[in-house]
């Protein structure tokens, strides 16, 4: 994809969205679920869409929440449901819609304790990892008769026009595919039938219900952070941390963290604005709160010399962006490798604890695992594949190339089963405090020994039929024996870590690989690739990968 001429520059007036029109579309436009693009569809991180395109509207949310309530009943989940929202404009009306349906279904809903107050800065914004931690903490002290689960209303780092909703069952992490398929199927049935089976109260009536409770989520989460991060080491070393929340849901957490643990934290951008007009434009010229993008993070990168470590997060705080004085914004793959090496050599966790990575994450992680003699488990794309391992601590770490990761507590117990941008950001400060080197400097040490990777990702338009072909492509369908001048040593259609279907293919050589898979929510397919030789070799891998995918479409008559 070519770089937009305004990428990395300030948002212009013409880039801003009409918030009033957006919210009006949420309530006024009615989806037709006979049209695929207007159906409830759960990707790797829940259902996402935009109101103007009739893919995220009130009918979607009330139907999804009704389906979740029915799922809870079928599974005898009778404890509280922790409900959170991020700072996107559509999160506000969707939050109200969710409460009105869940309370009508007799669900005990718990929200941040200042959500109903117009005088508080947080307005009830709740990060994804906080919901996960709340579920885990509750269920640790309650038996099966009162298990909790949760819903987070967020489209993650997506543009301001988008909305999203995801469900976390009692294990605290993203719902598995069998659960989300059940929820989306039922939600679409409800919409098609005119929502006649949806139970819903007027919002103001729901707010007065005894079933709606409030808790101080901020205090509960922050007070437990020292269980997973060496906060004392950060404070004692005097590490200075610059934080750009990118207008996200964790903005009110950072001052509480700083005060409780005596850490020098400066919030460089304290603005919450649903238009996100304070953002630098992303590579395609759109407003996107992607903390792994050097264009979206341009403002924080410009301040890198002002702090020992600078960090950013996306709106629901399940992703991290790490900026160092020595190297600027780190590639997420590079930071994952450094974080894994540090944690596995400084925590004293059991040797049997595995490292979890998605199959499109850097093979530098494989080399790190081999160097420190730790088991590696490679799984398909999606953080849901790490949930079971993080829940029983058989995985010490789970991470994906899109800057999402989490790890177990210092004592080896479960911390979260969802991505946690807070702890990945604070870990960068701990690494500096303990080792005296920032994560980029440690990355250079690793690649000096293990080789330096060149990593890339490209996208191409794909029809529904082409995406289906790619999803079902078998390893036998790839007849090539050589990739970019090297012998192919493996062709995968299932992940080696758990034998789950990739939903595409991965082709591996000694010094490179590519993976091709369709998007779950857009009419595109993606190619991820890596070379340990050089950039020219990487581009050759990508070109030949595109040829292999095109040939598969041709064989299918597409």
Structure, described:
- The structure is a single chain.
- Helices cover 33% and strands 20% of the residues.
- It is an alpha/beta fold and 558 residues long.
- The chain folds into 3 domains: 205 residues, Alpha-D-Glucose-1,6-Bisphosphate, subunit A, domain 3 (Alpha-D-Glucose-1,6-Bisphosphate, Chain A, domain 3); 226 residues, Alpha-D-Glucose-1,6-Bisphosphate, Chain A, domain 3 (3-Layer(aba) Sandwich); 102 residues, Alpha-D-phosphohexomutase, C-terminal domain (TATA-Binding Protein), CATH 3.30.310.
- The chain has a 7-stranded mixed beta sheet with strand order 1-2-6-5-3-4-7, with helices on both faces. Strands 9-8-10-11-12 form a 5-stranded mixed beta sheet, covered by helices on one side.
- Strand 8, helix 9 and strand 9 form a beta-alpha-beta unit.
- Helix 11 packs parallel to helix 12 and helix 11 crosses helix 15.
- The longest helix has 21 residues.
Structure keywords:
TATA-Binding Protein, Alpha-D-Glucose-1,6-Bisphosphate, Chain A, domain 3, alpha/beta, 3 domains, 23 strands, 17 helices, 558 residues, 5-stranded mixed β-sheet, 7-stranded mixed β-sheet
Mean pLDDT: 95
Main β-sheet, in a few words?
7 strands, mixed
CATH structural class of the largest domain: Alpha Beta
Instruction: List the strand order in the largest sheet.
Output: 1-2-6-5-3-4-7
Shape: globular
The domain count comes to: 3
Classification by helices and strands:
alpha/beta
User: What name goes with the CATH superfamily of the largest domain?
Assistant: Alpha-D-Glucose-1,6-Bisphosphate, subunit A, domain 3
Helix content: 25-40%
């Amino acid at each position: 994809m070519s770089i937009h001429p305004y990428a990395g520059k300030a948002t212009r007036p013409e880039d801003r969205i009409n918030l009033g029109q957006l919210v009006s579309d949420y309530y006024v436009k009615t989806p037709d679920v006979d049209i695929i693009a207007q159906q409830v569809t759960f990707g790797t991180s829940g259902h996402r869409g935009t109101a103007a395109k009739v893919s995220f509207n009130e009918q979607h949310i009330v139907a999804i929440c009704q389906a979740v309530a029915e799922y809870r009943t079928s599974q005898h989940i009778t404890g509280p449901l922790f409900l959170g929202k991020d700072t996107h404009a559509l999160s506000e009306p969707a939050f109200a819609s969710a409460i009105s349906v869940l309370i009508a279904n007799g669900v005990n809903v718990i929200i941040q304790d200042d959500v109903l107050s117009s005088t508080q800065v947080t307005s009830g914004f709740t990060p994804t990892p906080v919901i996960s931690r709340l579920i885990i903490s509750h269920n640790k002290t309650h038996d099966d008769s009162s298990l909790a689960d949760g819903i987070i209303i967020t489209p993650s780092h997506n543009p301001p026009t988008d909305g999203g909703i995801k469900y976390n069952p009692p294990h605290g992490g993203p719902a598995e595919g069998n659960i989300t398929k059940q929820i989306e199927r039922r939600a679409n049935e409800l919409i098609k039938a005119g929502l006649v089976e949806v139970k819903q109260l007027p919002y103001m009536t729901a707010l007065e219900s005894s079933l709606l409770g409030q808790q101080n989520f901020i205090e509960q989460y922050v007070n437990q952070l020292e269980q997973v991060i060496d906060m004392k080491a950060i404070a004692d070393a005097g590490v200075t941390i610059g934080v750009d929340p990118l207008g996200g849901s964790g903005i009110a957490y950072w001052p509480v963290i700083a005060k409780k643990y005596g850490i020098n934290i400066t919030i460089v951008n304290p603005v919450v604005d649903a238009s996100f007009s304070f953002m630098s434009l992303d590579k395609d010229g759109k407003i996107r709160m992607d903390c792994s993008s050097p264009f979206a993070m341009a403002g924080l990168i410009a301040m890198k010399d002002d702090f020992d470590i600078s960090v950013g997060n996306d709106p629901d705080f399940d992703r991290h962006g790490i900026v160092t004085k020595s190297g600027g914004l780190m590639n997420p793959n590079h930071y994952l490798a450094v974080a894994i090496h540090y944690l596995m050599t400084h925590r004293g966790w059991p040797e049997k604890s595995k490292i979890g990575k998605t199959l499109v994450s850097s093979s530098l992680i494989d080399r790190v695992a081999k160097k420190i003699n730790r088991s590696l488990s490679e799984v398909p794309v999606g953080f849901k594949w790490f949930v079971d391992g993080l829940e029983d601590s058989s995985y010490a770490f789970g991470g994906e190339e899109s800057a999402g990761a989490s790890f177990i507590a210092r004592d080896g117990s479960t911390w979260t089963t969802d991505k946690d941008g807070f702890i990945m950001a604070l870990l960068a400060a701990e690494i500096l405090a303990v080792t005296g080197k920032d994560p980029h400097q440690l990355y250079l040490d690793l690649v000096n020994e293990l080789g330096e990777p060149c990593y890339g990702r490209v996208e191409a338009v794909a029809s529904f039929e082409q995406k289906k072909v790619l999803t079902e492509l078998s390893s036998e369908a790839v007849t090539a024996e050589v990739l970019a001048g090297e012998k192919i040593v493996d062709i995968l259609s299932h992940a080696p870590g758990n034998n789950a279907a990739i939903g595409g293919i991965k082709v591996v050589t000694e010094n490179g690989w590519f993976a091709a898979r369709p998007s779950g929510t857009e009419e595109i397919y993606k190619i991820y690739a890596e070379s340990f030789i050089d950039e020219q070799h990487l581009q050759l891998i990508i070109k030949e990968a595109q040829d292999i995918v095109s040939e598969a479409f041709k064989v299918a008559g597409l």
